[in-house]
Design a protein that fits this description.
Layout: H1 15-28, E1 51-52, E2 55-56, E3 81-82, E4 91-93, E5 96-97, H2 100-109, H3 130-140, H4 147-151, H5 158-169, H6 172-175, H7 178-191, H8 202-206, H9 214-228
Antiparallel strand pairs: 1-2, 1-3, 4-5
Length: 232
């Protein structure tokens, strides 16, 4: 574990801006800067995933690391920063982890096959009940940051996969491939080494988008229906 003193930090700085200041100081001293992931810095992309003082994305709720500000910490406080800890998220360097396992789970079934050969149908052509549309939209807010995995004692990805399965299974466009989708995504999730759900609900608490545990329950129901009706 390395300790780095940082001074002249404004309480209005974001957590990533504080890391920028630290890295600038390290480069000025001829030392190696700390590697960490970041991209949009608007709480959208999910890249800035850090375990801060024992909490995914830090002490705030329903915010990402880039939305966390230094006023959340006391002046002179020691802040402990770690990368995500999970078998399926191997550390690349410092605070950067490889989350391509999520990409492989999505490629296994997190999509809807659509004819784009010029015969596409207007999105509003199929009436969808508002309740279903709202639930699908809520599930779609998942940004795939991996906080649920990092927080879970079993490194489970069921909240992530549940959100992606729900997002599509709730809409008529996704029902055609629903059974095959959930079977393939759950299989891919298991192959990547993610654990099973602990039923403690820590993933929902730490999720920066507040994804509900209801999505895990929906995924389990979809999986059970698919397995019962499967010819495999």
């Amino acid at each position: 574990m390395e300790t780095y003193p940082v001074t002249d930090i404004s309480p209005d700085m974001s957590f990533l801006e504080m890391l920028d200041v630290l890295n600038y100081d390290l480069v000025e001293k001829g030392e190696e800067p700390i590697a960490f992931d970041h991209d949009c810095r608007e709480g959208i992309c999910g890249m800035c995933s850090l375990y801060i003082n024992g909490e995914a994305h830090g002490p705030g709720r329903e915010i990402t690391t880039c939305q966390l500000h230094m006023r959340s910490f006391k002046d002179g406080e020691t802040v402990y920063i770690e990368p995500w800890r999970a078998k399926a998220f191997p550390v690349i360097k410092d605070l950067v982890v490889d989350r391509s396992s999520f990409d492989r789970v999505i490629s296994a079934g997190g999509f809807v096959s659509v004819n784009t050969s010029g015969n596409t149908i207007d999105a509003n052509a199929i009436p969808i009940p508002k309740v279903d549309a709202d639930k699908a939209f809520d599930a779609a807010t998942c940004i795939g940051c991996g906080a649920c995995v990092a927080t879970c004692k079993n490194s489970s990805a069921m909240l992530f996969v549940g959100a992606k399965v729900s997002q599509l299974s709730l809409l008529p466009q996704g029902k055609v491939e629903a059974a095959e989708r959930v079977q393939n995504m759950v299989e891919a999730m298991d192959e990547e080494g993610f654990g099973n759900c602990t039923n403690t609900g820590a993933c929902e608490v730490e999720c920066p988008k507040g994804i509900s545990l209801e999505n895990i329950a929906r995924m389990n129901r979809e999986f059970l229906k698919a397995e019962i009706g499967s010819d495999k």
